[in-house]
């Protein structure tokens, strides 16, 4: 039917259900009658949820990135009837503006090209797939790890990252700023290696970069000061105005990063930030059977009944609103969080270029706490206690606002990241000072409660998303398991979480399950000729490419995590099993070595 009915299959939104720009394009284009007529007359339109089908997303995102040098969501791709990509891009406005073609213009150009240049267009699509397939099937020249991972690779990665360090506002790179936990973890690890080798001065300098970055993120608007947790990224260089979606994979990784910072520095500030994230997840993101849910939207209605949703409406505040809620402590709170009568989104020209937040405030800590405590003539402990009580009052008011949409899917890979964080925190946070005081939104719970969260999440996956007969995972769950099978990341991230459950909780059943999953992962994804793991099983013929993901980005790659898993499994087991894990780890590292020196910033997790 497709060959007769359609000229092009169009994927109008491969993107997050919580993605702000996906919502913008949905309203501007997909709900526009003019756009709808063009789509319905000329195309078969398919909407794909990136979270449910990351394999589909990866194929066409790779195409768009290779063709245009960048990607993102929403991802718009035009396909031939046999699913070969022809053209693509990301967000398009409905009409031409700012020198960019609008979506209607793009649709007309694709239609014209299909009518008049079809052969050239299809040849281009075939060539692109062939080239990508060839590039993605690089074979390791050896199966032996001759000299180990190059000793200078870690130093080279750290030096390149250091060159992009923002010494004024923290973080690496310029706006928009993403937390990128893999970068922070690498620099923390590098500082420890420097310290171990006696390079004390450089170790302190590297550690200072990381800790300052974590402090800036925690004080910025990317951090939800009232409810806990972190938003996706900051649009400006000061970590102030975020895109407000909250993703589980960010929470899991950032909780682990702040935990690592606490371990290295012994500063309870970082332990409290880890608790801040985990307590947010416990309160707002746990399902009825202990499963950990995926995400919260960036957009919500300002008032009940409003059809129009606005980004950040749930999280931002007017100065007078704060006055009315906090009364005598309003002045202290507004000083601390830089709240201004006309709004505070003016710290950077990038913070609010379209005046979307005029008259509103995104909480950010700019002033010195000790100086403010002195200004209000009170001990720091009392000052912090008042701030906590103020946050509680704002939280209660905020809870009565229309909430952002909750994406209640359960994704195995993201649960794996969170399981790791909860399991590690259950043991490491026991080393906090007994005198530590916790202010809202922290609960100050016994760390063993975090272990219970991790165990319940893992048990949910075993009950609902794991087949005891085939030892296979399904990718996600919402009102039942998804049809999509588990992908490499699902296996690798869950195995990592189970190994942490075993290491920090002590129950051997988690190690046994981890070994079962590793065996299945090897069976389904391992490239025994070229080395490394494919993202997919290859059992679905409609997925045109079997990609091997090496890039550590918003999430670590399945191959990087697998290398670490195999090394850990080799140390936790014995005999032939241990030898097999060690050998597989070496083979995987050989493949990664082909790219590591030239592209070391792609392998930060490793």
In short:
The chain is an alpha+beta fold. The chain is 50% helix and 8% strand. Among the domains are: 2-135, Glutaredoxin (3-Layer(aba) Sandwich); 309-398, no CATH class.
Descriptive overview:
This protein has 606 residues and is α+β, with helices and mostly antiparallel strands. Among the domains are: 2-135, Glutaredoxin (3-Layer(aba) Sandwich), CATH 3.40.30.10; 309-398, no CATH class. Helix content is 50%, strand content 8%. It is built from 21 helices and 15 strands. The protein has helices at 2-5, 20-30, 33-42, 54-68, 103-116, 118-135, 151-163, 181-196, 200-219, 248-265, 268-284, 319-326, 330-336, 369-375, 380-398, 412-428, 448-464, 488-505, 508-525, 558-572, 575-596, and strands at 8-15, 43-49, 75-79, 85-89, 233-234, 242-243, 246-247, 295-296, 299-301, 309-311, 406-407, 410-411, 466-467, 472-473, 476-477. The strands form six sheets. The protein has a four-stranded mixed β-sheet, with helices on both faces. Strands 7-8-11 form a three-stranded antiparallel β-sheet. A hairpin with a 4-residue loop joins β13 (466-467) and β14 (472-473). α10 (248-265) packs antiparallel against α11 (268-284) and α16 (412-428) packs parallel to α18. It holds the Pfam family Thioredox_DsbH. Keywords: Signal. This is Spermatogenesis-associated protein 20-like TRX domain-containing protein.
């Amino acid at each position: 039917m497709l060959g007769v009915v359609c000229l092009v299959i169009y994927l109008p939104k491969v993107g997050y259900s919580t993605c702000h720009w996906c919502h913008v394009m949905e309203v501007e284009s997909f709900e526009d009658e003019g756009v709808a007529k063009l789509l319905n007359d000329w195309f078969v339109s398919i909407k794909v949820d990136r979270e449910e089908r990351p394999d589909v997303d990866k194929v066409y995102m790779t195409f768009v990135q290779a063709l245009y040098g960048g990607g993102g969501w929403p991802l718009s791709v035009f396909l031939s009837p046999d699913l070969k990509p022809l053209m693509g891009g990301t967000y398009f406005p409905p009409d031409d503006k700012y020198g960019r073609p609008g979506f209607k213009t793009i649709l007309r150009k694709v239609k014209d090209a299909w009518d008049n240049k079809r052969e050239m267009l299809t040849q281009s699509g075939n060539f692109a797939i062939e080239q990508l397939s060839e590039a993605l099937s690089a074979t390791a020249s050896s199966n032996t790890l001759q000299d180990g991972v190059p000793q200078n690779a870690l130093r080279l990665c750290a030096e390149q990252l250091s060159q992009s360090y923002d010494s004024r506002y923290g973080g690496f790179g310029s706006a928009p700023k993403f937390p990128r936990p893999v970068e922070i973890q690498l620099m923390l690890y590098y500082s420890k290696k420097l310290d171990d080798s006696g390079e004390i001065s450089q170790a302190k300098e590297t550690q200072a970069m990381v800790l300052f970055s974590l402090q800036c993120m925690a004080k910025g608007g990317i951090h939800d000061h009232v409810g806990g947790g972190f938003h996706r990224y900051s649009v400006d260089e000061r970590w102030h105005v975020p895109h407000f979606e909250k993703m589980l994979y960010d929470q899991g990784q950032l909780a682990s990063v702040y935990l690592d910072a606490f371990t290295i520095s012994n500063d309870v500030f970082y332990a409290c930030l880890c608790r801040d994230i985990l307590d947010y997840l416990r309160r707002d993101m746990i399902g009825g059977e202990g499963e950990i849910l995926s995400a919260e939207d960036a957009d919500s209605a300002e008032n009940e009944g409003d059809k129009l949703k606005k980004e950040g409406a749930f999280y931002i505040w007017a100065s007078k609103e704060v006055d009315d809620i906090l009364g005598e402590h309003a002045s202290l709170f507004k000083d601390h969080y830089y709240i201004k009568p006309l709004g505070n989104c003016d710290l950077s020209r990038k913070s609010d270029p379209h005046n979307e937040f005029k008259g509103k405030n995104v909480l950010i800590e700019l002033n010195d706490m000790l100086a403010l405590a002195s200004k209000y003539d009170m001990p720091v402990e009392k000052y912090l206690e008042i701030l906590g009580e103020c946050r509680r009052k704002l939280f209660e008011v905020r809870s009565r606002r229309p909430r952002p949409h909750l994406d209640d899917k359960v994704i195995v890979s993201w649960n794996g990241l969170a399981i790791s964080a909860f399991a590690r925190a259950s043991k490491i946070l026991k080393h906090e000072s007994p005198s530590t005081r916790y202010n809202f939104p922290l609960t100050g719970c016994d760390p063993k409660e975090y272990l219970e969260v991790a165990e319940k999440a893992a048990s949910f996956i075993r009950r609902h998303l794991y087949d005891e007969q085939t030892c296979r995972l399904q990718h996600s769950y919402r009102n039942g398991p998804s049809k999509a099978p588990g992908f490499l990341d699902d296996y690798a991230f869950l195995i990592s979480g189970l190994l942490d459950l075993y290491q920090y909780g002590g129950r051997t059943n988690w190690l046994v399950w981890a070994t079962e999953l590793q065996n299945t992962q090897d069976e389904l994804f391992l490239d025994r000729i070229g080395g490394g793991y494919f993202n997919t099983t290859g059992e679905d013929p409609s997925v045109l490419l079997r990609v091997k993901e090496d890039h550590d980005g918003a999430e670590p790659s399945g191959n990087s995590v697998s290398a670490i898993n195999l090394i850990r499994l080799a140390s936790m087991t014995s005999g032939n099993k241990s030898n097999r894990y060690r050998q597989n780890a070496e083979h995987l590292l050989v493949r990664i070595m082909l790219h590591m020196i030239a592209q070391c910033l792609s392998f930060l997790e490793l």
